[in-house]
Amino acid sequence: MSKVPGQEGNRIDTGTKPIVKYTGVTKSFGDLQVLKGIDLEMQPGEKVAVIGPSGSGKTTLGRMLMTLEEPTEGTIELDGELLWHTHEKGELVRAGEKHLHRMRSNVGMIFQHFNLFPHMNVLRNVTEAPRKVLGLSKEEAEERAVSMLGKVGLADKLKMYPSNLSGGQKQRVAIARALVMRPKVMVFDEVTSALDPELVGEVLEVIREIAEEGEMAMMLITHEMDFAKEIADRVIFGAEGRIVEQGTPEEIFDNPKSDRLQSFLQRFR
Ligand code: ADP
């Protein structure tokens, strides 16, 4: 079979510089090695769904990009710059807090639990980081925040406190709070798992709209297989700390090659 120019295996070479690049990344918690050598690139604007059994290291993968966990070995680059550290001549070179702080502002992460500030209203939850981290004025931050809250369908909830919102609304505030920082990459970690089933749709709809805008790279760690199939450019199946298989949604869901992936997908049929 002839090779498609610019396409090597599952990786589509668009000629652009990757926005995210993991090289030989391992992660251990004590004796437990949860990631066993991850090589992964994401292109600017690319939507990558990460699926796999619980405990396979998906959250850890995302948390490292958000600088919430440090890799044990290997490197992670964000937009061509080293995020964490590198190993030079066997020596671990740690990134300083200032560097991490700057790099972190390029990444947004949404968690299963929303972690909103309970004592702040919706608007302040969203303006806090642009003011404190980006140094925007109150007016500038509010202008951005109102626009983002409009985008997630909460324009009429600016003065409400988190305790008076539904789970779906809280999660949409969390999404607006991350988006307002204009990150280059967003990590969505099981963002609908803690929601009542009837609230899942409204959150997925917001994520779908953000994805359609296209600019931001997105890592979607999810158990929502239909959703992954619909919006991902590429799906990564991880198990026991390794990437077992990756490909287009059609390749992964309609034509899984490994036994491991086939049996994993059975559970969602
Ligand atoms: P997944 O998202 O695929 O469910 P995780 O990345 O959350 O997997 O976890 C992978 C493994 O690492 C699990 O066994 C989990 O218990 C363990 N783990 C995650 N974070 C920590 C931590 N801070 N300390 C110890 N073990 C951890």
TrEMBL record:
It is a peripheral membrane protein. GO terms for cellular component: plasma membrane. CDD domains: ABC_HisP_GlnQ. The keyword Repressor does not apply. It is found in: Cell membrane. Keywords: Amino-acid transport, ATP-binding, Cell membrane, Membrane, Nucleotide-binding, Transport. InterPro entries: AAA+_ATPase, ABC_ATPase_HisP-typ, ABC_transporter-like_ATP-bd, ABC_transporter-like_CS, Ectoine_EhuA, MetN_ABC_transporter-like, P-loop_NTPase. One of its GO terms (molecular function) is ABC-type amino acid transporter activity. The keyword Membrane applies. Residues 20-265 form the ABC transporter domain. NCBIfam families: ectoine_ehuA. Belongs to the ABC transporter superfamily. PANTHER family: AMINO ACID IMPORT ATP-BINDING PROTEIN (PTHR43166), GLUTAMATE_ASPARTATE IMPORT ATP-BINDING PROTEIN GLTL (PTHR43166:SF9). This is Arginine ABC transporter ATP-binding protein.
